[in-house]
Amino acid sequence: MVAVLLYTAIAFLKQTRAAFIIRGIFILAAIYILARYLDLQLTAWLFQGFFAIFLIIIVVIFQEELRQIFERIAVWSLTSDDPSLRSDAADILIGTVADLAKDKIGALIVIEGKDPIARHIMGGIELEGKISEPLLKSIFDPHSPGHDGAVIIKKDQIARFAAHLPLSKDFRQLARVGTRHGAALGLAELSDALCIVVSEERGKISVARDGRLRQVDNTQELGSILQRFLGDKYPSAEHRGFSFSLVRENWLVKLVTLSLALGLWYVLVPGSSTIETTYKLPVQVENLPAELRVEELQPKEVSATFTGPKRTFYFFDAGRLKVTVDLSSAEPGHKTLRLSELNIRHPQNLTLQQLNPVTVRISIVKALRDEKEKG
After folding, report:
1. Which helix (H) or strand (E) covers residue 128, if one does?
2. Which tens digits make up the pLDDT trace of 191-224?
3. What is the CATH number of the domain that holds 322?
4. DSSP-assigned states of every residue in 132-164
5. Does 218 share its domain with 93?
6. Taking residues 9-34, what's their average pLDDT?
7. Do the Cβ atoms of 312 and 350 come closer than 8 Å?
8. What integer is the mean pLDDT of 49-55?
9. Are both 143 and 115 inside the same structural domain?
10. Which of 79, 103, 128 is at the close of a domain?
11. Do 342 and 367 lie in a common domain?
């Protein structure tokens, strides 16, 4: 279930400009995991502060995408299976677009999918008229007041004309094209609608869908694109069953998504259980004055038992654990020091349960160099 949700989110975000942001977040997460593994405490601390407000960052960055996802969930069970455009109306539309392109008359036609597009459209005049060649040509006639706007087709009717669409900011795709193309791509980025554009300067036909703008070579290609769009949005009964093509398509993304879901399950579900682990840790001295040396240290290693979430043990190297004894104020002689949790640097999520033994015996003498100098 998680894999399906992740794949749906990835497939949706790939259609938007948010894909690069997702990659950046994954890179930051990889750096954080590496910092935890290498015990880079300052780096890990900085990233912990970042991920503490991660949900707020997601909402701010992806507010438009999240709104689209919630809209699609809301209308999922409310949309009908009737095609938005029947075959006879589709033929009329294709023929009219071909004539407009031949006469170099600009046009912008939007065919609704299953996403609501009302909030993306500004202005326009309601029509609710049946699709016909004379009606479409009269709307896009250069002398018509509404010829610069878009025609919105819903079912087999022209629901609205002279409508204004949001403009895209994808300047790479919009190089050497006009405002109509920018409006078509802008709506295709925000919804699943199919937008057909006719350029009045070149007489070329272009289509925008799923955030992509492409030029169409002929009316046959336009017809196949339209039929494929209707088939994807409103599949016939014989195509609604399970097909192995669902597994073959985008198999690499699906495999990565499944692996990610399994990894999350392994870390979050079994990883949340509390376990107890015992390590043999070496005892090391630090900050010993230069004129002194350790003649004897017993024992040289101790057993330390830690408890904590299982996932915490995944992200740190147990070989880095050690018991350190601060001898900055040491003097020559024999000492017995008591060990505690303060002598062991370990992840915050782990708790030291037991040390065995809890004391170490240290014999400190003056360095031989100092003895020779005095002699």
Report:
1. strand 122-130
2. 888 999 999 888 899 999 988 899 998 888 998 9
3. 2.170.120.30
4. -HHHHHHHS-TTSTTTTSEEEEETTEEEEEEEE
5. yes
6. 73
7. yes
8. 73
9. yes
10. 79
11. yes
